[in-house]
Amino acid sequence: MDTNTLLADPVAIEIEKFVSLDNAILIVVKTIQPTANCPKCNQSSGSLKTRYLRSLSDLPWHNVPVRIELHTRKFRCRNEFCSQKVFCERLEKVVVPFARRTVRLAQAIEFLAFALGARATARTATKLGFQVGKDVCLRVMRRRLNSINRNNQVSILGVDDFAFRRGINYGTILVDLESREPIDLLPDRTAETLSKWLAAHPEIEVVSRDRSTVYAEAVRSGAPQAAQVADRWHLLKNLSDLIERFFINNHCLLTQTSSLMRAEHLAKESEIPLPVAEKPDDVSNTVTVKPVPARRQKLFDLIKVLRLQGKSIRGIARELKVARNTVKKYICCEAVPYHRSGAGRPSTVLPFAEYLKKRWREGEQNGFRLWQEIRQQGFSGEVDAVRRFICEWRKTAVGKMICPISSRGLAPRKTTKLLLNPESAKNEAEYAFLTKLCEISPAVGRVQRLGMGFQEIVKEKRADLFDDWLTQVKMSEIKEFQNWADNLLADEEVVRNALSSSWSNGQTEGQVNRLKTIKRQMYGRANFDLLRARILHRG
Ligand SMILES: [Zn+2]
What's the gap in Å between 107 CA and the centre of ligand 1? Predict the structure, then answer.
């Protein structure tokens, strides 16, 4: 076998021998080409000045570290006009000048560092059979970043913001929508920073952005030549946010629908057996004494024994890992004391059981609201007593059957999703909820028509329907939509561009998600430049 193919550049170097060391493999290698080129003037020279030795780390072999003893040479440059009198021969494919690691090991470290982060790379390296500190990884990443993105040209740019810490500070991510790669990260989301960046890129033709005024202003001042396009993804997000707000403002519609549905359901299922509260019914008025649990009995005995041995309360508590008060209490007692709480005593809720059962069957299954109701009737206990009382009912299949939709109705966000996409209903009940909701409120029907209409305009790029849609909004008398339409018209050209342009920020959102993942992987410790390095690194 030709062992020389084990190394990166068999033309320039030759393996002399392998030496097995205690915890490593040593490969002795020498350079074999008769001449070398001067790095300064590139003239070939065969005039040997001296030989010397370089010690290198290479990729591990079966997790065993590999070291290379490289016998290399220095040559004289014979070009009389060259300032470099003596030079070391270059082995670009094997090792760069002054490096202590071979090129392929350095590459492996770089790949790992960008994929895992510095700390994780340092840990992983040890397991794989080579050593690298986290500081080295950080340096590798920073150095690499300087060589990425020197002259990144971009013509179709997507702009979006992301949170370093939600609600506190934000940055801006810039994505090349053609190559689908992030091309830069800005440390904030101000107009000045973005505008400065844009000014350095006169080649930009289209900027796809969300509808914030800050970015609008930045593009106007930094890239006046570029056409601005409102991002369709954000337009659709604005739409669903707006409908959600409509349901938050009109929450009573949701609860109303739910109680109607529950009443109908109950009418159908009126023959179901009542849930039975076994525990409270059984105990009637006599106190039943439950046996002491074995665990507590054992603890009690142990404490007594240790006390007899003369141990302190504090010592016993520490040894048995129980509270000092427990030890004190048990020492004073003749037998295991009963818990003061609940077990065995009749529930104070009992006098209200019939009423609770009735309400439960009517569909009210929220402990807190039931508690409020019986408090009006004179119940003086805590809400937890009511919750304990009904928890048995909740467990039974009957309890579940009664309530396909909770008494508060579906959440506004869920309702919005259903409204815009009825096919997304997970079950009959959700579908029925939506139908009922549209039945009881004509406004909801209008919201649905407007919402789905806008969705169609954006998704199918039906710019021709936009004016029609605006007229419908005007006539709809739904103020959430009317405000939004005004807002869209303030930015009209950009919105209309969105309806005809083929560019959208959908993938920018994907990049923001990737960014979030990397940011979390870095535990928030990383500096901005490292985050930037990892986002921009490819491959
Ligand atoms: Zn030279």
Answer: 30
- Burial class for 79, CB neighbours closer than 10 Å (0-12, 13-18, 19+): middle
Distance of CA 33 from the midpoint of ligand 1 (Å) = 18
**Packing angle, helices 313-320 and 324-332, rounded to 10:** 120
Which of 234, 177, 240 has the alpha carbon at shortest distance from 211? 234
How many A from CA of 78 to the centre of ligand 1?
7
Q: Where are the beta strands (DSSP E) in 322-465?
A: none
Q: For the stretch 490-511, what's the b/e string if a residue is b when 16 or more beta carbons lie within 10 angstroms of its beta carbon?
A: ebeebbebbbebebbbebbbeb
Q: How far is the CA of 37 from the centre of ligand 1 (A)?
A: 8
Write out pLDDT tens, residues 62-108. 888 999 999 999 999 998 899 999 999 998 888 888 889 999 999 89
Question: Minimal CA–CA distance to 414: which of 400, 401, 403, 424?
Answer: 424
**Six token digits for residue 185:** 């990260």
pLDDT tens, position by position, 239-272: 999 999 988 888 888 888 888 877 777 666 554 4
CA 398 to ligand 1 centroid distance, Å: 92
Distance of CA 215 to the CA centre of its chain: 25
Give the DSSP H/E element, type plus range, for residue 103: helix 103-116
